[in-house]
Design brief:
About 20% of the residues lie in helices and about 40% in strands. The model has no long low-confidence stretch (mean pLDDT about 90). It starts with 5 loop residues before the first strand and ends with a strand. The chain folds into two domains: about 55 residues, 2,3-Dihydroxybiphenyl 1,2-Dioxygenase, domain 1; about 55 residues, 2,3-Dihydroxybiphenyl 1,2-Dioxygenase, domain 1, CATH 3.10.180. It is α/β, with parallel strands linked by helices. InterPro entries: Fosfomycin_Res_Enzymes, Glyas_Bleomycin-R_OHBP_Dase, Glyas_Fos-R_dOase_dom, VOC_core. This is Lactoylglutathione lyase. Keywords: Lyase.
Length: about 120
């Protein structure tokens, strides 16, 4: 079995696309029109995210215990980058073992994003 993608229902499609392109570093792969909205796939290879926007959806619900993890070369560099973009670090940096370090931010819809450095 192969993991296909993670679907996120969004309240503002363009704001979410901008976040995942500029902050996470994955780009739009495909755009699809649907009744009352649009679907955008970002990423290629193993990392894919599906953003779904529907004009009839009045609120987005996000679970607190789910996060999406993305590998970075340097946690410190990524923290500096997100700080310069005005994004609040929600937690971290955390180093639970000598081999890994990470921190969390939130996307525009409240989804926790984890940036991970393997040491």
């Amino acid at each position: 079995m192969k993991f296909c993608w993670c679907t996120i229902t969004v309240s503002n499609l363009e704001e979410s696309v901008k976040f995942y392109e500029e902050i996470v570093g994955i780009s739009v792969n495909k755009r699809l029109s649907i009744p009352n909205g649009e679907i955008i796939f970002l990423g290629d290879g193993e990392t894919k995210i599906e953003l779904v926007y529907n004009t009839e959806n009045k609120g987005v619900q996000v679970g607190n215990n789910i996060s999406l993890g993305f590998e970075v070369k340097s946690v410190e560099d990524k923290i500096d980058f997100v700080n310069k973009k005005g994004i609040k670090v929600e937690a971290g940096p955390i180093q639970p073992t000598p081999q890994i370090k990470f921190f969390f931010i939130k996307d525009p819809n409240g989804v926790k994003i984890q940036f991970v450095e393997h040491l």
